[in-house]
Amino acid sequence: MKLIEYADRDMLAIDLANQLAGELNAILNHQDRATLVVPGGTTPGAVFDHLCDVELDWDRVDILLSDERWVPADHPRSNTGLLRERLLTGRAAAAHLLPLYLPKDHPEEAIPALEEQLRPCLPISVALLGMGGDMHTASLFPRGDNLRLALDPHAPLLLPMRAEGLEEQRITLSARVLKEAINLHIVITGEDKKEAVLRAADLPPEEAPVKALLGDATVHWAN
Ligand SMILES: O=C(O)[C@H](O)[C@@H](O)[C@H](O)[C@H](O)COP(=O)(O)O
């Protein structure tokens, strides 16, 4: 695991946004399109605020979430809502959003259609992930009902995920799709998450799912 520590959260947001933009640009120099994966949750908003104004051929970028809560985009807990508000605005409004939600009762009913749209956009060019204090990343939760399959090297692209204590059903990219990203980053803030990511490095992925990705990722941290 490579860990980069920043002086403060503002520096992290600015520097990380520039790094992500540089990596997307490098991909766009030799490919028609690039795929950017981003997390939901509360941490990435500040990164989005800088990234959305970066000069880039945004109309050649496909953006999708690492995972989504199974609620419509206008629901306050929708990660898609956060993306529309904070990332798909300014210059980045020209990017194409790949959906991770369809109005069906359960993710299982939507996964075949969502996977069909996702397949031509792989491998991911640049993936940014968040991490919870329980060492989950995307919706790969330690007690997730589909965790074992989601960690399997032959896992499908997308999986439904449910876990005790979660407010909604989730849909998530599998670990192998995230691991195959050309550039992989994890963004975390606060002492508790730094301790958690260091602890995860010594645990099996079944207990600390983020571990499945740590070997391939750069972790960005500020207090
Ligand atoms: O939908 C979500 O919640 C996420 O995509 C999730 O994996 C998130 O990145 C972590 O839970 C960290 O969330 P915070 O940044 O809010 O701590």
UniProtKB/TrEMBL annotation:
Top-level enzyme category: hydrolase
Highest taxon of source: Bacteria
Biological process (GO), any one: carbohydrate metabolic process
Enzyme Commission identifier(s): 3.1.1.31
Gene3D superfamilies: 3.40.50.1360
Coiled coil: none
Single annotated GO MF: 6-phosphogluconolactonase activity
Pathway(s) annotated for this protein in UniProt: Carbohydrate degradation; pentose phosphate pathway; D-ribulose 5-phosphate from D-glucose 6-phosphate (oxidative stage): step 2/3
Keywords: Hydrolase
Reactions accelerated catalytically: 6-phospho-D-glucono-1,5-lactone + H2O = 6-phospho-D-gluconate + H(+)
Span of domain Glucosamine/galactosamine-6-phosphate isomerase: 8-221
CDD domains: 6PGL
Family membership: Belongs to the glucosamine/galactosamine-6-phosphate isomerase family. 6-phosphogluconolactonase subfamily.
Role: Hydrolysis of 6-phosphogluconolactone to 6-phosphogluconate.
Stated name of the protein: 6-phosphogluconolactonase
